Amino acid sequence: MKRIVFSLFILLFIGTASAQTEIKQTIRGRVVEKESKSGMFSVTVRLFKDSSLVTGTTTDAEGNYRLPDIPIGKYIIKANLVGYQPVVYGGINVNSAREVILNIEMEESAVKISEVEISARAHQGEARNEMATVSAREFSVEETERYAGSRGDPARMASNYAGVQGADDSRNDIVVRGNSPLGVLWRLEGVDIPNPNHFAVAGTTGGPVSMLNNKMLDNSDFFTGAFPAEYGNGIAGVFDLRMRNGNNEEHEVTAQLGFLGTEVTAEGPISKSSGASYLANYRYSSLALFSSAHINIGTNAIPQYQDGSFKLNFPFKHGGDLSFFGVGGMSHIDIMVSQYTTPAQDLYGADNEDQHFGSKTGIVGMTYSKSLSNTAFFKLTLAASEAGSDAEHNVVYRNPAVFKTIDSIVPILGFRFSEQKYSFNFFLNKKFNPKLSLKAGMLNDLYRTSTLDSAFNQTYYKWQNRWDNTTSYMLLQPYVQAKYKPSENLTINAGLHAQYLTLNGSKSLEPRLGLKYALTPKQSIALGLGMHSQMLPTYVYFYHQEDANGNYVRDANGNYYLHNLNVGFIHSKHAVLSYDNYISKGLHIKAEAYYEYLDQVPIEKKSSAFSLLNQGSAFSRFFPDTLVNKGTGNNYGVELTVEKFFSKSFFFMLTGSLFNSTYTGSDGVVRNTDFNGNYATNLLVGKEFKLNEKQVLSLGLKATLAGGHRFTPIDTAASRKSNDVQYIDSQTNTLQLKDYFRLDAKINWKLNTKKFTHEIGLDLVNVTNNKNVLAQTYNRDGADHATNPIVNTYQLGFLPIFYYKIDF
Q: Using an 8 Å Cβ cutoff, are 246 and 277 in contact?
């Protein structure tokens, strides 16, 4: 591996011997009105290098602008038009091999000013969604690449924000303000999508590797609470992702070899005359290469995965636009502990089972949008998706005296789950005047769920079907929201979201309200209020009920009795108070205080500590007894963000949160949730060094310190009797893991030549090799079984992640 890296550096430095002609590139895009999406004429677009003006231009009749012959480097773009709020984009990275295509949306000022520029402005980092008031942020592809430890993954990138944490190192689940990762909604191109991760387990929203490739994404929004009325079926947070269009003038290719895969991205014009374009990416796992180099990736097995995505865009005359998009991936892993010659910890499997696991996810869709006038915009989306997983588990029984000797291998589990969804969504934006605009639409999802599961019951010594069902149903979500600006300083966002699930008749009506007041052009306060609801993970509805003899109950017609079928939505009420201060150019402080009350939380009918609020962050499903909507939860806390956006070759972000997260199960006891670490803080720092006109070296650091997750003591006697881990239910989450600390580093070197951009990067995860405890578990095997049956399992140790990328 060292020879490969050294050879690449030698080859690339040889390339610097080419002529020292200054390398230049083009920045271009389109400026549109935010509500109607119609092109804006005569907008002034200026380009700055730090605070110095480089060049400028104005948009044509269709809103297009072009800034040619721009030297490579980092820039700031500002767009101005009298009567509209100015827009600023920082950290624009200009390379030699790729044009920069930046589309800009501008919002009309509530107060008409004819001769002077208004002082209010859209600040960097503010959400693209015009109805967002609090707990919202725009994130860019640049950020996913710049933050140390993010691995180009939107979810891992978001875990740097205040109030957001990762569940553990082996997965990219995110915990928002103490909520379960189950409460996070993923949306792509206006469609709610299934878990977009490889090795996705039913009922989860995360995984070890994302199948969303950051090279395909446009700037997108992330919400942590009190989100606008267009978002439903989520109670914790929202990822609203957008795919960018391909370059409609030049063909461009990116090839990359790295830890996360070998991949290629291609884009270019389908028709230069019409402006139609294509964008496509394919990636294949290269982890086998790193495993052979004896690099610890958290498992002795070799994860196999591949994914692809595409977008085809066809703009029409008179404001219409038709796009086709898709994302899909397949993954498979065989964890064969029967082949181990010594005991070994594996983050992704049990210590005494051979496991075969596979998953697949695919989304394809079509969007049609059109500016109906200078004040109205319509968008229609049709999409189909499928998410499935299958597994087989076999228990490995060893000779207690000789680890290598296997007595027997016994099958105990096999399942196959599939969820298909067909979506028909639409909305209409209408701006009545500069002060009032309205957005109304409806999300319509048709589900077809198929579940099949057989497990060996060791108590009754027989095979049983825990799932065997195929069902179709719909989730309907109409919404309406309005934005009213009685003055330039005050913005009111109000909306109403409704949900209806045909499977069991569950329904919800959810008002949302946001108020934002600008104290000065740089300071504002805001208040967000809202009710939110969410259905269960679909497989939970179809779990069969077991009687006292270990048999699953059937009704009079011979069908399995689905004892969770009528469980209703979980509900959450959000209140957020926010303060924003853009102290100077590029320096931003944000503070938020929040309170969430969760009710109608599914808990077990029998007395227990179980709650849905603790699920969704592992590689296993959960098997609750009969559920009822009688649980509650409380989350409250304060958050602080101090951020210097990238300028003058430097950025930093400091985030911190103090919080409390509790719940009540059917036993009536108020407990800490699994995710109640009470505090979390992140510090990210990055610096670029311009070596010469063609070479840039970037360095980055990230330090994370957070309170440990809560956990439950193990019942040693019961575990010995069943030869499997058994917890003391009455003491659920009474213990806490030690504080979590991780230091990550990132080194990136870039070389621009006339036709190529070469990039070599190295992410160093957990550079201090800190031993963070993941969980406590029961040790079934080993010489210390009799004296020390409870052992710690640990998070990832030091992990180097290397990549080489070339653009041309």
A: yes
